[in-house]
């Protein structure tokens, strides 16, 4: 049995290599710890104010803190005074969703199918309501429809504003998913078998773009319920939505009532945000679009 004797130079080189590995390992740990620290600080910066606001809505006296006791009195007061705003916000969000589905799904499909310059121009024009401030869009609607008193003072006027604001999210989500699917080949195969356009649209297009529809629907509901700037300009005393009521409570009532209103708003919007994360969808549909090229690259590398 032979043994290998290391020379002093080899032993020194091995020690230096081990030190480099140890230093690299320590550096990676330090970087990871630093990333976690920054992430936790950012989370605390975002979450702590929300927690403090919720606690303020559940305490008897905000300035005395939790030591003054916990109560549901402010939530009951908010619900008594503003439950009409809650139901109105839900009705407006539902109406907005229905209209954006009827318009946005066919529009997104058409834009994905079309490769002309005109379709690209239309797609860019659809993004304008997002690029413009909500107050500017509201002012444009007031200039256009302000003379129609019955329409101007109805909740339908707010629905129109919300459709203008949220429609691009539905169109882009559906178009992104439709563009990533080989719908043209599937439709041509179905057409060769005698399927009509309506049959192809309902049995091929809609099932394939369902992730985009779900993503767009959740985005539309969340944005409609939480939209303030545009709604504040369009609302009347009889069409006060949840965000407008929240601003009123903070401006005219004690902070406990405003914080209790925040809790109510939080309860309405959090299920939608959780659903978006749970379903793994985003408002543009780009997340699912980004996954497919990676699968193709894996297939090509395997072959």
Walkthrough of the structure:
The structure is a single chain. By secondary structure, the chain is mainly alpha-helical. It folds into 2 domains: 59 residues; 227 residues, MetI-like fold (Orthogonal Bundle). It is built from 14 helices and no strands. The two termini are 47 Å apart. The C terminus is likely disordered.
Strand content: under 5%
In N-to-C order, the SSE pattern is HHHHHHHHHHHHHH
CATH architecture of the largest domain: Orthogonal Bundle
Let me know the largest β-sheet. none
Which key terms come to mind for this protein?
303 residues; mainly alpha; MetI-like fold; 2 domains; 81% helix; disordered C terminus
How are the SSEs placed, and which strands pair?
Elements: H1 8-58, H2 73-113, H3 117-126, H4 128-131, H5 134-145, H6 149-152, H7 155-180, H8 183-192, H9 197-208, H10 210-226, H11 229-234, H12 242-252, H13 255-279, H14 286-302
Task: Give a quick rundown of the structure.
This protein has helices at residues 8-58, 73-113, 117-126, 128-131, 134-145, 149-152, 155-180, 183-192, 197-208, 210-226, 229-234, 242-252, 255-279, 286-302. It is an all-alpha fold. The chain folds into two domains: 8-66; 76-302, MetI-like (MetI-like fold, Orthogonal Bundle), CATH 1.10.3720.
